[in-house]
Amino acid sequence: MKYFIVLFIFLQVTLKSFAAFDFNSNCRNAYEDIVSLKFKAAKTKLDSEKKVNPGNDISVFLENYIDFFTLIIGEDQNDYTSLQKNKDLRLRQLEKGDSQSPWFLYSQAEVNLQWAFVHVKFGEYLSAVGEINKAYKLLEDNQHKHPGFLPNMKSMGLLHAIIGTVPDNYKWAVNIMGIEGTISQGVKELNIVVAQSQTNSEYNYLLTESLFLLSFVELNLSKDKDNIEKLYTILKYLPGYNPLLTFAKASIAIKTSRNNDAISFLEKRPESAEEYSFYYLDLLTGEAKLNRLDMDADVYIKKYIDNFKGKSYVKTAYQKLGWFSLLVGDYDGYRKNMGLVLSKGNDIADEDKQAQKEAENGEAPNLKLLKARLLFDGGYYLQAMTMLVKDGNAKDFTTEKDQLEFTYRLGRIYHSWGKPNDAIPYYEMTIEKGAKSTYYFAANASLNLGLIYEVKKDFKKARKYFELCPSFKNKEYRNSIGQKAKAGLNRIEGK
Q1: pLDDT digits over 412-450, tens only?
Q2: What domains appear along the chain, each with residue ranges and CATH number?
Q3: How many angstroms separate the Cα of 357 from the Cα of each of 319, 381, 455?
Q4: Is the pLDDT of residue 375 over 50?
């Protein structure tokens, strides 16, 4: 009897130890493979871990990372259909783990959060709302139980930043769920994660993921130029190659008028059969080259179209091919590509909405304005200005759209060129003439006036122009302009 009691106790202790979260060196290496998009290598390590430590639930957690990146980057409907079943299976397994571990609640939260983003990508918004609610509550509970657990702060930081941009007309839904957060709070938390992952060897594996998330927040939500500059410096001098950080670094370079740097980063990335294909980097390369008016821009855009199996940015890609056709004088090519804009991809992203609207209007862009826009997007301000005021003049622009874009583009060039006072009258003129227009020029002019007055610390005027943004009738870029205006109001609240 004593023997059986001892054996029973031994088995209970052993089984409990097997149902654990052991983020050992093998799992850490697998995670680093995953965030480098080397899924085959990661799966080999995880299969080995399952044989050696069959009760280590970190393997289950990391397998979800692979599904997450596969679906977010590849956007293949067939993969989505086959991988959906894994979510509930993994959550049931993770719920059996060691409840005393900081990984217990965190792993469940992360699986919910990752699938929320996947469901948004595939248009399952109701599912995403429920998963975000679950993730937030699990993370909040885990924060109270394990306040020093840095991965928790990474995910909370992202959620706080995203919640901070929810439009007022949807705030009721967030309030019902009891979720709170601001962009500044999220940025602060993500910066803490980046700093600690650089100095604390226990958490240095988090650096790639936290830098990637911080880049997303800073570029799309925060828009703090000083923070973006600091982040760019870190990314630029980070040793080694990582596709996610190359995306972040190139995106920041394009947004901060370093188009040549972006092309260099993208062209120097190594081709590897071990790496999951990230075709959006080809589209980004093509767009950056188009900004420089390079004659091989179409090669990269076509590579995206020919290989990407999802629907996001497909309309954008065909629109950019159409623009390239105009640059080389191929008007039939433009019409053909704009016809494909109408029949391919989806129009969920703002860029795709804009492409769809141009295709529906059937109006080819004015060539001078198009070249000026592309040069502006690349940060080639002198060439862009020359295109408008030396090589052309206001008489070249006869339609309502072209006249609006002419004043808007001059404002944007002066603003980004570091001459905001020269930009103000052109932005005001665009708002005055385009207040009732369905084009995005007046709405974005209002947003940029808000940003100018925010920098000047004239918060009354900044608030006026941020609040004005949703009142325009634009369909193009409506979501992103509204989100950025909301972020601006969030930043100046109480000032």
Answers
A1: 999 999 999 999 999 999 999 999 999 999 999 999 999
A2: 20-256 (1.25.40.10), 380-495 (1.25.40.10)
A3: 11, 27, 33
A4: yes
